[in-house]
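Fold Annotation — chain and its backbone
Encoding — discrete vocabulary of local shapes
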Amino acid sequence: MRHHFLLLLVLMAPACRAQEADPAAPPAPALAAAPTRTDFHIRYINGSNVYIDGGTTSGLREGTELILKQSTNLSEQDPANAAIEPGVIARLKVISVASTSAVCEISATKRDLTDKDVVSLPDNEVKKLVDKDTLGSTRHYPMVISFTEGDPMDEEVRDEVPRPPLPEVNQMRGRFGFDVSTIQELGQTSSIASEYGMVVRADFTRMFGTYWNLNGYWRGTLQNNNNAAVQNSIQNLMNRTYLMSLNYINPNSAWTASIGRMYLPYASSLETIDGIYLGRKTSERTVVGMFAGSSPNPTAWNYDPNLRVGGGFFNIHGGTFDGFHYSSTAGAGVDLLKWAVNRPFLFTENEFSFKRYFSLYQAMQIDNPTPNPGQPTVGWGLGESLISARFQVHPRVTLDLTDTYFRSVPTYDAVLVGTGLLDKYLYQGINGGVRVQFPLHITGYGSVGQSNSSNDNGSSLNELFGASVMRIWKTGFGADIRYAKFDSAFASGKYRTVSINRDLGERFRLDLQAGRYDYNSSLAQTSDSYFGNAMLDMDLGARLFFQSMFTAQRGGSLDYNQWTTTVGYRFDNRAAMRAAQAKH
């Protein structure tokens, strides 16, 4: 490498001798400082790590500070963090940098950051960058020499500086544990049954240096129990609504993939699937995807434990969330019941939005379902449709209008009616709603509309009213109260719920819920039930956690008590990784 420096000195020598030979010659004009870029867009957020679109070519280095300046949004004017000076929303520090991108760590913030935000260099960092451009290694030379193997001066500097892996590589946090659940069935034939299970929560990024990520939550049974009360309890059904998937996301590749239980990218209206997804970006704005799997979620409209689904779609999207944004998907699929064709369908899903002021969402399926034995043929037609419009008329007031239609009778599990997980199916027809944020962290919400479907002889009134508070005085408790009344061709009833929660960071959580629901439907037995849930989740020391849940249900087809106790191990290597990087 030294011969390269000798060559550089030889090429520079004539210019140096020319200046020495003519001391009266006018001095060379001062070199202007290189243009300085001060604003950078947030491209991706992963926990406390923020990825921006600027790197060493923009003058950023490890330790460079960035700020998110105050905007005119009223919700940002509430100083939630007194450690940040007025006019600044957040402070960040670059912890890893490449040529055109960098990873930052949030030092302090008044609100959650989004990929719509733009961060800037503060004045002191701009001065450092200008001084470096004027006097540092970026100054111009009399002649430029290109090297086939890179700039030797930069290479020598890089050889002396250790390069730790990016902070998201092999970042792993989560927990796993084993539980025992005991259920006492009451009534004339009282019995007690137990089952053993496992719980896993994972947040793994860039596993083993690859672009595979594991995210989600799973709770399942290791030892099966055929007791009907155990299988149909509220807790056991809610455990089956989990999401956990292994995802391949490589910014340098056009391919993406997911394995596990997930919502399909660009086609979330198809409910969750338990299977595989493969997608390819065909251009900057278009994606082609394929999927196959089962649909085991008991909150799905067409839930059946023997149902299989597969298909493909095409998506086009564009714009920006800072202004107008759109996404449009069209595809086709087929439902298989015990591996026989049950329902071929076509589907579309469209989304349009303008900043945070307006959004429009539309999804529909045109299908040809196989009729039940002895029933007439249905034929191709509109199977389901959802249109939803949202208007933010004030930073604290949001209005919405929805129109929901279903042709076929739903097959979701009716035991979950009182949990609120089935609200999107119970309210058919046109409904209008409002959500208002009041002072003292209180939010009120409501919805009123007419319910109708293809099976209705007339229409009926739907009602939903509720209120929630994030913090009750200075206790740290939050609460939510809800009342709902629904009436349609396949189901009618009402429910009331009250829930209370208390969080102490990630180390302690208490959830209490109680309610009553009346449900009349041809899909399930008439139910007039009371239920109560209690859940305690707490950390035991640095590595262990303890969780206990209790559920009681009275009335209807199920009358039981259930206890579940979980003990497990939790882990988080982020602090150790940051400490190792600090040594460098």
Summary: The first strand starts at residue 39 and ends at 46.
